[in-house]
Amino acid sequence: MKKSIFSITVLAFITLFLSSCASEPLSPLQNGSYSVIFDDFDSTGWKAYLVLYVKDQKIENVEYDYIGSSTNGGKMKSEDSSYAEAMYSITGTKPELYIRQLVDSLLTHQDPDQIETVSGATTSTKDFKKFAKLAIEAARKGDTSPITVSQNE
C-alpha cells in the first residue's frame, strides 16, 4: 500500500513538473512590416537596420543593410564598393554576400536561432539575429511601431 501511495505521489510530481515545463504556443505572426534600427552610427560610421515583411503568418521578405554616415558618403554598406573590396581582402566576405546569406537563411528557417554565424561577419550576424528576434516579437503582437535599439547594448 505504501508503495502504491509513493508511486502515485511520484507520478503526480512528475506530471506537475512536465506540465509546468510545457511552453505556451507562440502567437502567429501578424501581416505587416516591422522595422528595427540602431539609434546611432557605430564607430566606423554605419547604422544597421532591418525591415521584416510578414504575409500569411510567414516572413515573406527581409531588408537588412547599414546606412552610411556622411563620412561614408551616405551610401548603403552593401553598395559601397571600396568598403566591400577592403572587407573581402581581409575576411573573404563582403556585405553584398553576407547580407544575402543572412536574409536567405531567415527566409528558409523562419527562426533567427537557426541562422549560422557568417565567417568574417560575426558582428553583422549578431546584429541581424538580434534585430530579427525583435521584429518577430513585434510581429507576434502586430505592433508595427519602429523599434530603436541602443548601439551600446
Question: What would your notes on this structure say?
Answer:
This protein is α+β, with helices and mostly antiparallel strands. 43% of the residues lie in helices and 20% in strands. It is built from 4 helices and 4 strands; from the N terminus they run H-E-E-E-H-H-H-E. It has a 4-stranded mixed sheet with strand order 3-2-1-4. Helix 3 packs parallel to helix 4. The longest helix has 20 residues, at 2-21. The termini are far apart.
What is the gist of this entry?
With 153 residues, the protein is of the alpha+beta class.
Topology (elements, then pairings):
Layout: H1 2-21, E1 32-38, E2 46-55, E3 58-68, H2 81-91, H3 95-109, H4 122-141, E4 147-149
Parallel strand pairs: 1-4
Antiparallel strand pairs: 1-2, 2-3
Mean pLDDT: 89
| Computed Rg | 22 Å
Distance between the termini: 59 Å
Described by the principal axes of the CA atoms, the overall outline is globular
Order of helices and strands: HEEEHHHE
Beta-strand percent range: 15-25%
Task: Output the structural class.
Answer: alpha+beta
Measured as a percent range, the helix fraction is: 40-55%
Please give the count of helices.
4
- Order of strands in the sheet with the most strands? 3-2-1-4
Given as residue ranges, the uncertain stretches (5+ residues, pLDDT < 50) are none
For the largest beta-sheet, the strand count, sense and barrel status come to: 4 strands, mixed
Task: Please count the beta strands (DSSP E, at least 2 residues each).
Answer: 4
